[in-house]
Amino acid sequence: MAAPAAVTGVVTCMGFGAGGITAGTTAASMMSAAAIANGGGVAAGSTVAVCQTIGAAGLTAALGPVAVGGVMLAAGVTAGAAVYGVSKTRLFSKP
């Protein structure tokens, strides 16, 4: 089954990896947004925490297709919200 490898590849490309989150990536933006929303920390079990676990250790057989789909959906929604927030701030801020 190629899904676990594909998910791990996507998460790694986003910036989640064995050495932690790579600066300047989508993962870094997601982590920043999550930390701000949680008062400075990233909650255990959050999308960012799960993606980092996948990036560091790979997707295990314990996560079924439904869980993988849920993680990817949550990651997409979080990334979209982060990008929207950044673009909205830049578009509507006064010089």
The low-confidence runs, each spanning 5 or more residues with pLDDT under 50, are none
Series of H and E elements: HEEHHH
Overall mean pLDDT score? 75
Placed side by side, the strands forming the largest sheet appear as 1-2
Beta strand %:
under 5%
In angstroms, what is the radius of gyration?
A: 14 Å
Tell me, briefly, the overall form.
globular
What class do helices, strands and sheet pairing give?
A: mainly alpha
The number of distinct structural domains comes to: 1
Please report the distance between the alpha carbons of the first and last residues. Answer: 51 Å
Bin the helical content. 55-70%
Specify the biggest β-sheet: 2 strands, antiparallel
Count the DSSP helices.
Answer: 4
Number of strands: 2
What does this protein look like?
With 95 residues, the protein is mostly helical. The chain has one domain. It has a two-stranded antiparallel sheet with strand order 1-2. 20% of the residues are buried.
Write the layout of secondary structure elements.
Elements lengths: L2 H12 L1 E2 L2 E2 L4 H12 L9 H11 L7 H28 L3
Antiparallel strand pairs: 1-2
Helix pairs in contact: 1-3, 2-4, 3-4
Brief synopsis:
This protein has 95 residues and is mainly alpha-helical. Helix content is 66%, strand content 4%. It has helices spanning 3-14, 26-37, 47-57, 65-92, and strands at residues 16-17, 20-21.
Relevant terms:
single chain, 95 residues, mainly alpha, two-stranded antiparallel sheet, 4 helices, 2 strands, globular
